[in-house]
């Protein structure tokens, strides 16, 4: 049993979200005595799996598509029980199952993309990866029962489109992945420090420049041309299928206050494609046990490394003496001292609430207050009496991600009201039925539906008290249009507005990324310019959460980079 | 369709809201008196106000400061009222010096910096009570002060327009105030302040100034401004009181070794070129830094610059051979290496020396002080006479007058 009364901790980590745990584990592995303080009764933040109705469990984050390979390796997560939906591909596809993929409308893009990993089964199921996992397909739903499906790692195979569109998609996919790969190395390192940067910083920029150059002249020009472009226009250049364009437009803007036509919206798609699962860029997994199982593996790894975890211990204050963080004070008044304080919670909360503006320079306070972090995504959890049917979707594909985004125009129209503080009357959403992958999440014969619904602005003009039932009605109408009679299956509906997400997970603005992930809040501007390297103006205080580079999603990258930064600092000292 | 009439009405209301186009230079509350005395008509723009360079003769105005007493309108100076239970803590965060050591009824000269430790301005902080301050400065800072107030229980508002100010400086300044009937003013020591009745209100008088001489500054609500002026001018008549303009004051402040923001250094928000900003240590204000006090803006950057020896400049007083003022002259080491620039210079009638304030690139002016020269271009009937004069680094102030600090102050 770990004693919490040890005279002195080397490191105290505020926040037991996955990034806090990753950072704590890595620091503990280096021999430091590390204590993680989690305000809630359970670690994991929005990735924790919770019961939302008796017998029904879900996590707010519901897909794994960017857990960083270096995190998996450094924490040896496989050994610590990371089980990523190991179920082998269904040997005999159900009558309407995977077999349908081989039809004339499907061309396998896998051969082109990664010939070495071609699965014996054509289509969306492939082996390989960290645990022979099944990559979840993405299905662009259609009201008239004519969906389009991206199989494998982000559409290695495309089902339901014309041959011409498949060919166009093959080219576009290859291009997107090629360009995303240039940005990818930045994920697992400190953003280059502009001005006073080290040799390493300059080298990182140099490597990126070299990678761009290696694309060849035409490709390089195109990379630079489209980098800050909006996703809508790029899709229009290359594709014709509204369903495919709708899906890609949705993926580009999911989790941000942007419409597909907003400048720079393509960056969101790149961010998604810099993520990978099992070595396959863009691949997504519906993990067994929900994201909570992933958190459990990280927690086990942390504890195995010697990290002490204390839950139900909200931090009220970071104790600063002579410009240096020397520990924290809990809400109950208890003070815990440590040589290093790591804040794996929201940066604005860290500085404005825990440190306090009086102890920070005015210019820095201005920057922190200016971080845009008003979420636009609501979370729907449905307890269903049975598996809903989605028009035209094969049973096997129900285990994947179902997206309602009929066209890029529809996504843009859905965004319009959000600019003026109203929710989308016909929201776009991504749906996962996690209990199909892990039956333990729902009683036998029942089903859990988990959906991210956009756009639901944090600061709803009419207020969420009256707005929430109206949004729920709009969401259910949209669901009903794509899954007829789903309403009759609903035993319980839980809708979390950004305001609810804020309250439940202590995420200001209910924002997944703890700060909009847009060009002006990325890399060396994340969380604020001048302080993007995980260290802070308060000596001994470091940031390690999604509010720092590279951003949110279940990646562990901010925690990983922060730990490396802290270790490098110590070596220097 | 929008009618022509409504368009015009909208234009009119917009024009009405743009009164600043009609009065390009505001008058101060003392403007009627200044206008009456302004024989030279030599005006300049001081923070948007019409202020006199001189009123009747800059040479004699200077000597009014040194041998009689001079009345100078400081109303255009930017003034902030800072009040609240956290006012002390707020001022302590914003400014460099330790405000917890500033007692109610006292004034101190201080400065403030941005995050990078670059000086935003210097000024005086008046502690009017335990919870109320007045901050006077050259530049405007309201957005900075309001953002600095986040997390403090304090209200900050600009009172530049509502508060009128006068500086009364010179050897007979005290006698003048005594004659005007400000009982108890003799008790004020340097940097003390107190309130005194004037008509149906009060005037705050502090023993402060910008001349290095015996002197006082008086702050009063703008309604009572003119009657205060009249009271002083009347009482001071036999004590040689004279209204003066800025040129005279500027000479006096140079003799006193005092610096002026955006004349002797470029404030951080005005600097366009990144190497023009200055840290306190680089403009002679290092004495204000107190690492032991509570957090203040720029602390981390300033202490880091000190520790890593990143300071690049030093502000020095120079004594220059000859009697030609070296204004804006380049400073050389061994007559050939350019090492700095003179920002203010004059022949000092009081010191009987040719003096200057200059900014030098380290190590010149610090560890290397020998063999310094200034290159003066003296215009003589449309021809420059180039003079290379030896300069010596000397301590500031250039003159030290016992009467400035004498307590009680000398009567006349």
UniProtKB/TrEMBL annotation, chain A:
TM region(s), chain numbering: none
Region feature Disordered, mapped onto this chain: 82-105
UniProt superkingdom: Bacteria
A Pfam family of this chain: Amino_oxidase
Record-annotated Amine oxidase domain positions: 20-567
PANTHER family documented for this protein: PHYTOENE DEHYDROGENASE, PYRIDINE NUCLEOTIDE-DISULFIDE OXIDOREDUCTASE DOMAIN-CONTAINING PROTEIN 2
UniProt subunit comment: Interacts with COX5B; this interaction may contribute to localize PYROXD2 to the inner face of the inner mitochondrial membrane.
Free-text function comment from the UniProt entry: Probable oxidoreductase that may play a role as regulator of mitochondrial function.
Protein name as annotated: Pyridine nucleotide-disulfide oxidoreductase domain-containing protein 2
Upper classification of the organism: Bacteria, Pseudomonadati, Pseudomonadota, Alphaproteobacteria, Hyphomicrobiales
TrEMBL record, chain B:
Domain GCVT N-terminal: 57-290
Highest taxon in the source lineage: Bacteria
Residues in Aminomethyltransferase C-terminal domain copies: 315-400
Entry GO MF terms: transferase activity
InterPro entries in UniProt: GcvT/YgfZ/DmdA, GcvT/YgfZ_C, GcvT_C, GCVT_N, TrmE/GcvT-like
UniProt KW keywords: Transferase
Stated name of the protein: Aminomethyl transferase family protein
């Amino acid at each position: 049993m770990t004693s919490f009364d040890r005279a002195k901790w080397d490191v105290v980590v505020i926040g037991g979200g996955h990034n806090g745990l990753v950072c704590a584990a890595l620091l503990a592995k280096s021999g430091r005595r590390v204590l993680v303080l989690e305000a809630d009764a359970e670690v994991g933040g929005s990735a924790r799996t919770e019961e939302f109705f008796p017998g029904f469990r879900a996590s707010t984050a519901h897909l794994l598509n960017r857990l960083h390979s270096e995190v998996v390796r450094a924490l040896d997560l496989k050994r610590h029980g990371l089980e990523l939906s190991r179920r082998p591909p269904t040997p005999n596809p159900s009558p309407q199952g995977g077999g349908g993929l081989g039809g004339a409308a499907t061309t396998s893009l896998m051969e082109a993309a990664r010939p070495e990993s071609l699965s014996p089964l054509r289509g969306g199921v492939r082996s390989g990866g960290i645990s022979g996992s099944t990559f979840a397909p993405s299905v662009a739903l259609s009201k008239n029962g004519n969906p389009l499906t991206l199989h494998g790692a982000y559409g290695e195979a495309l089902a339901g489109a014309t041959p011409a569109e498949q060919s166009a998609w093959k080219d576009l996919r290859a291009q997107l992945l090629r360009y995303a790969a240039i940005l990818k190395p930045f994920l697992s390192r400190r953003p280059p420090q502009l001005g006073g940067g080290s040799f390493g910083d300059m080298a990182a920029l140099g490597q990126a420049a070299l990678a761009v150059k290696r694309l060849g002249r035409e490709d390089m020009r195109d990379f630079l041309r489209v980098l800050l472009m909006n996703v809508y226009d790029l899709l229009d250049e290359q594709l014709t299928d509204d369903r495919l364009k709708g899906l890609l437009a949705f993926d580009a803007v999911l989790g941000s206050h942007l419409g597909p036509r907003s400048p720079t919206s393509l960056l969101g798609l790149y961010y998604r494609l810099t993520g990978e699962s099992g070595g396959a860029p863009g691949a997504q997994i519906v993990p067994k046990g929900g994201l909570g199982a992933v958190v459990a593996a990280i927690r086990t790894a942390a504890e195995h490394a010697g990290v002490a975890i204390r839950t139900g211990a909200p931090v009220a204050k970071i104790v600063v003496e002579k410009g240096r963080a020397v520990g924290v004070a809990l809400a109950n008044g208890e003070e815990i001292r440590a040589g290093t304080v790591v804040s794996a919670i929201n940066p604005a909360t860290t500085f404005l609430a825990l440190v306090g503006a009086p102890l920070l320079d005015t210019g820095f306070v201005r920057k922190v207050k200016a971080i845009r972090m008003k979420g636009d995504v609501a979370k729907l959890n449905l307890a269903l009496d049975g598996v809903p049917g989605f028009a035209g979707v094969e049973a096997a594909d129900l285990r994947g991600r179902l997206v309602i985004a009929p066209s890029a125009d529809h996504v843009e129209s859905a965004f319009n009201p959000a600019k003026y503080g109203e929710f989308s009357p016909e929201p776009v959403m991504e749906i996962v039925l996690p209990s199909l992958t892990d039956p333990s999440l729902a009683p036998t014969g029942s089903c859990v539906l988990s959906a991210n619904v956009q756009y639901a602005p944090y600061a709803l003009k009419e207020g969420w008290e009256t707005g929430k039932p109206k949004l729920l009605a709009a969401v259910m109408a949209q669901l009903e249009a794509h899954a007829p009679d789903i309403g009759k299956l609903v035993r319980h509906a839980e809708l979390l507005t950004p305001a609810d997400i804020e309250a439940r997970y202590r995420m200001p603005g209910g924002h997944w990324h703890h700060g909009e992930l847009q060009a002006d809040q990325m890399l060396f501007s994340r969380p604020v310019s001048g302080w993007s390297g995980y260290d802070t103006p308060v000596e001994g205080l470091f940031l390690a959460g999604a509010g720092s580079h590279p951003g949110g999603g279940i990646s562990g990258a901010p925690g990983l980079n922060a730990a490396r930064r802290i270790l490098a600092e110590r070596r220097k000292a | 369709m929008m009618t022509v009439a409504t368009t015009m009405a909208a234009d009119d209301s917009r024009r009405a809201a743009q009164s600043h186009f009609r009065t390009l230079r505001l008058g101060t509350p003392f403007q009627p008196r200044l206008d009456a005395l302004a024989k030279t008509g030599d005006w300049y723009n001081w923070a948007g106000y019409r202020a006199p360079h001189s009123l009747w003769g800059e040479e004699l105005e200077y000597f009014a400061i040194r041998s009689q007493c001079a009345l100078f309108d400081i109303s255009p100076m930017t003034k902030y009222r800072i009040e609240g239970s956290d006012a002390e803590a707020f001022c302590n965060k914003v400014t460099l010096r330790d405000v917890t050591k500033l007692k109610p009824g006292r004034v101190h000269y201080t400065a403030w910096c941005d995050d990078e430790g670059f000086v935003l301005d210097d000024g005086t902080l008046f502690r009017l009570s335990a919870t109320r301050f007045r901050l006077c400065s050259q530049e405007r800072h309201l957005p900075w002060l309001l953002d600095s107030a986040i997390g403090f229980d304090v209200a900050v508002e600009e009172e530049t327009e509502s508060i009128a100010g006068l500086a009364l400086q010179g050897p007979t300044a005290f006698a003048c105030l005594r004659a005007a009937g400000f009982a108890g003013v003799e008790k004020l020591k340097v940097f003390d302040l107190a309130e005194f009745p004037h008509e149906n209100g009060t005037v705050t008088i502090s023993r402060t100034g910008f001349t290095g001489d015996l002197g006082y500054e008086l702050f009063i609500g703008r309604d009572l401004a003119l009657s205060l002026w009249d009271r002083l001018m009347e009482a001071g008549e036999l004590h040689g009181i004279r209204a003066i303009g800025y040129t005279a004051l500027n000479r006096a402040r140079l003799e006193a070794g005092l610096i002026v923001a955006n004349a002797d250094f470029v404030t951080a928000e005005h600097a366009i070129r990144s190497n023009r900003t200055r840290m306190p240590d680089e403009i002679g204000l290092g004495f204000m830094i107190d690492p032991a006090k509570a957090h203040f803006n720029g602390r981390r950057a300033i202490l880091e610059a000190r520790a890593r020896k990143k300071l690049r400049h030093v502000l020095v007083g120079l004594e220059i051979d000859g009697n030609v003022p070296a204004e804006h002259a380049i400073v050389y080491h061994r007559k050939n290496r350019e090492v700095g620039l003179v920002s203010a210079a004059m022949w000092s009638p009081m010191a009987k020396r040719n003096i200057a304030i200059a900014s030098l690139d380290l190590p010149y002016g610090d560890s290397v002080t020998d063999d310094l020269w200034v290159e003066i271009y003296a215009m003589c009937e449309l021809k420059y006479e180039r003079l290379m004069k030896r300069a010596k680094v000397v301590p500031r102030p250039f003159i030290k007058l016992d009467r400035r600090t004498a307590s009680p102050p000398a009567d006349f």
